[in-house]
Amino acid sequence: MEQRGNFGTKIGVILATAGSAVGLGNIWRFPYMTGVDGGAAFIILYLVCVLALGIPGVVTEFIIGRHSGSNAARAYRNLAPWAAPIGYMGILTSMIILGFYAVVAGWCLNYLYASLVGQLKGDVTFVQQYFSDFTSHPLKSVGCTVAFILLTHLVVVRGVRNGIEKASNILMPTLFVLLVVIVIASCSLPGAMRGVDFLLNPDFSKLNRSVFLDALGQAFFSLSLGTACLCTYASYFSRQTNLAGSAVKIAVIDTLIAIMAGLMIFPAAFSVGVTPDAGPSLIFITLPNVFQQAFASAPVVGYVIGVLFYALLSLAALTSTISMHEIGTAFFFEELHVTRQQGAWIETAVCSAIGVVCALSCGAVEGLSLFGKSILDCCDFLTAQVLLPLGSFLSCLFLGWYVPKKVVRDEFTNWGTLRSTFFGLFLFAVRFVCPIAIAAVFLHQLGIIR
Question: Is the Cα torsion angle 267, 116, 158, 170 positive or negative in sign?
């Protein structure tokens, strides 16, 4: 049987795992929520939530994954046979997410091409029609979805060190450079400071229980908690990897990129008098026109910024889909006793099938819906509102109350080689703070509490 892979360098661990957290949500969801929920006040609250919920949650999954050194299902099963369903749920969640996420990633890929060949020139109505025509075209939408999954497959099939780590070492620095370039260009526009104020000016009057739960939810989803991704990646960590230190670095990178995304979007939007929307309309309808208007006096610059923006989105999507793909690949490879290549192809086939149905439900096939929503929206709701919080909630309870304290301490301190100053605080957070906070987010997402 093939040997399991592992990460070769410390920077590879950080960039690959941070890449799993950095995605399209950083580009539009975080900036929008920051703007409408109090600007810098929301960011401060978000950082508190990352410290109280996000980092302990990340370390929890790291400990479970590294202790067993295997795929997510086996990782939980090795600690307690009855806990295997938690791992299975994480794997299923990741496959559903990869399926519908690839649809949106495929849209980004198409828009990158459209930007390159100049197909997005026109007013908002034109761009809106372009988006509608594309998403309702079965061959184009399905083709881009499957193409993105295959692109992801090409990275994952090469293994952990030669595929995921090498790709992350290239993709993450490139993504950061693109962000810096677009932020500088956006902030140099006339009137751009109004967008910066909108993003960073604290408005504490907007803070309430709902905003607090929004910040908790964003911290939870932004760090990929509950997908089995962190558990799977941690199974490739060395025994010398500082789990808590790595979690802090990942949280810092993820938050920095989210804030920079806001500095990229809002200054350009406000320079032309547009208040950005949330959701796909921001990325695929509003912003193409914003870039045209903002750089109307320098159309070449506007063209370059448009291309770089969709290249950035595609890279951000790819870093996330790679991690999602690896979860299922590792599971099939180890549990079915097939080669890693065969395991990757099984994952690709299953997720492509999900992606095709989701893509066709966005207008290409009439009546392809459930409960009045497209299949894509249903998959999004099921994972984001139910499976992710449930998986993370169960993981925290499992580690905090069932796994022997000595096992948890040994992994946290690398068998006594690291200081255990924050171990008591970590255990308290996992046992009490995280489950209560996650339960609150879960009930808030379902509309039970507001």
Answer: negative
